[in-house]
């Protein structure tokens, strides 16, 4: 059931995406509400966590998980258990939508949900049968039915059976049309912030976390560009309200004050915490525009730097060490030269946060840092430990953790850029007919990093864009990409991810989740569909051949 009054029906009654947890934590702390926070990475984790805590609690808040499956069927809870689900995954399971007692959906109603009507999905077939039975019994008399009457009943039974079969087929088609594509709705962080705003409990920290949540969707290519622009406009109004409300107060604050600003900044990843040269080389937008994996691309980069008129010494040193005179006009200089090199979209709407007078971070900086901490593979730490560290980096009182995350993000981005260059130069991307396919082999540098979903998603997005920029095959330019990377060598498993075709105007709807299920079912491939994103699965290496063959047949 959709919650219409989020304050009365949710808050007054009472996960593995760290930023979405922050706002609800702050609200609970504010009102001294006791709770237990349990990070989960997939459906198995969620089931285990629920079994451990179901005796202690009646109310469960699921952040960014639970909406796209029949939750009651999955968890088998007691009748008094109530689930509040704030999830961006779409489509929402129809059973969750029409359950009025145990499932409460915290989802913005202006999202394009397209949920089928109740009658189209759950209309009781027995109603038609009973209606038919009643009409058949109206003429029952004391005499036994004649042969003519029996023939009439048999014909009527055949017709009713046919009609019921047609209804079932129609119902399956409606459900298939509704469920065939996976996509994402409004960020859970933004939904939680608006809950705080309605209750007049919103703070600048909550606003910043909601900015990071929306930016995370853009960085990981989960929402269309227009959806991002719309959500940014919503946040901009809140930022203006907060800045106006606290303007006098901030002027009297110490160096620990916090200020959020709306900006048109550059699509250069972490450039304020890196050298400009390294940022250009490791940003998907500029790297693909120049085709930096080629000799001609390197020449173009040198021409671009020369056109900007910036000394190489300045370009190659850390941003903080650059001359102030250069930094003051840097964005304008880069934008002017970028236009000459057909990079007209190098600016993007975003937000920055200022902590005191020294520390400034773009929202995308924090997204990359949190993701790097969340999927850190350099130390043998548990996913829960990584989750807590990623959560810590979102606090303004723990900037040291944020800087550590940025350092890890740089390593990850370098690994992605080098892997993309290697795949393009060695022709590892193969056309399989209805889709492109790339398989990273064991022994590939930094391959362990790509056993994690967020890192593999960034690599997949970067690689597909690079391939589209480099290939001359027009048909291949409009194909989706499936990528596989080693997951567990001892178990012989790989992680498989599918993304839709590369397009700036794409609606970001992904059909691979359903396709993976069908292919695995038809070939009895040993797969594990444990991730909350259905387009990410685990597959036994031995079954890879027949699984791909089934996908080709299914999508052709």
Automatic annotation (TrEMBL):
One of its GO terms (molecular function) is chromatin binding. InterPro entries: CDC45. GO terms for cellular component: DNA replication preinitiation complex. It is found in: Nucleus. Its main location: nucleus. Keywords: Cell cycle, DNA replication, Nucleus. Belongs to the CDC45 family. This is Cell division control protein 45 homolog. The gene is LOC107670985.
């Amino acid at each position: 059931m959709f919650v219409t009054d989020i304050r009365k029906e949710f808050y007054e009654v009472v996960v593995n995406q760290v930023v979405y947890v922050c706002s609800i934590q702050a609200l609970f702390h504010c009102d001294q509400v006791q709770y237990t926070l349990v990070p989960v990475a997939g459906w198995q984790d969620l089931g285990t966590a629920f079994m451990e805590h179901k005796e202690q609690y009646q109310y469960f808040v699921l952040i960014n998980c639970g909406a796209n499956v029949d939750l009651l069927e999955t968890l088998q809870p007691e009748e008094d258990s109530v689930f509040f689900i704030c999830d961006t995954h779409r489509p929402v399971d129809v059973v969750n939508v029409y359950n009025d007692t145990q499932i409460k959906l915290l989802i913005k109603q202006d999202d394009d949900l397209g949920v089928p009507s109740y009658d189209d999905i759950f209309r009781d077939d027995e109603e038609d049968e009973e209606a038919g039975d009643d009409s058949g019994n109206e003429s029952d008399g004391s005499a036994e039915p004649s042969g003519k009457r029996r023939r009439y009943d048999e014909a009527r039974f055949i017709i009713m059976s046919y009609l019921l079969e047609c209804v079932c087929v129609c119902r399956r088609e409606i459900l298939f049309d509704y469920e065939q594509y996976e996509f994402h709705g409004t960020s859970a962080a933004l939904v939680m912030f608006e809950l705080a705003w309605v209750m007049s409990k919103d703070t600048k920290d909550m606003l910043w976390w909601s900015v990071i949540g929306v930016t995370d969707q853009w960085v990981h290519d989960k929402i269309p560009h227009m959806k991002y622009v719309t959500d940014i406009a919503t946040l901009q109004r809140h930022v203006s309200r907060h800045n106006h409300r606290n303007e006098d107060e901030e002027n009297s604050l110490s160096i620990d004050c916090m200020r959020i600003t709306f900006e048109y900044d550059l699509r250069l990843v972490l450039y304020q915490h890196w050298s400009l040269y390294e940022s250009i080389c490791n940003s998907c937008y500029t790297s693909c525009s120049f085709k930096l994996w080629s000799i001609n691309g390197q020449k173009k980069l040198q021409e671009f730097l020369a056109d900007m008129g910036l000394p190489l010494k300045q370009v190659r040193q850390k941003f903080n060490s650059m001359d102030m005179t250069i930094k003051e006009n840097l964005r304008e200089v880069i934008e002017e030269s970028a236009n000459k090199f057909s990079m007209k979209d190098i600016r993007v709407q975003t937000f920055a946060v200022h902590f005191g007078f020294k520390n400034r971070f773009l929202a995308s900086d924090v997204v990359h840092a949190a993701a790097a901490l969340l999927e850190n593979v350099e130390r043998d730490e548990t996913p829960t430990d990584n989750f807590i560290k990623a959560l810590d980096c979102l606090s303004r009182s723990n900037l040291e953790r944020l800087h550590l995350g940025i350092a890890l993000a740089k390593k990850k981005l370098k690994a992605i850029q080098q892997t993309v260059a290697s795949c393009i130069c060695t022709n590892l991307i193969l056309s399989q007919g209805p889709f492109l396919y790339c398989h990273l082999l064991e022994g590939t540098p930094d391959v362990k990093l790509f056993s994690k979903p967020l890192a593999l998603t960034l690599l997949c997005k970067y690689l597909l864009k690079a391939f589209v920029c480099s290939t001359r095959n027009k048909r291949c330019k409009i194909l989706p990409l499936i990528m596989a990377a080693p997951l567990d060598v001892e178990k012989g498993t790989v992680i498989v991810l599918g993304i839709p075709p590369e397009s700036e105007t794409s609606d970001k709807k992904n059909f691979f989740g359903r396709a993976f299920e069908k292919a695995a079912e038809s070939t009895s491939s040993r797969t594990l569909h444990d991730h909350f994103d259905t387009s990410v699965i685990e597959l036994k290496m031995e079954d890879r051949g027949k699984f791909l063959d089934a996908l080709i047949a299914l999508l052709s």
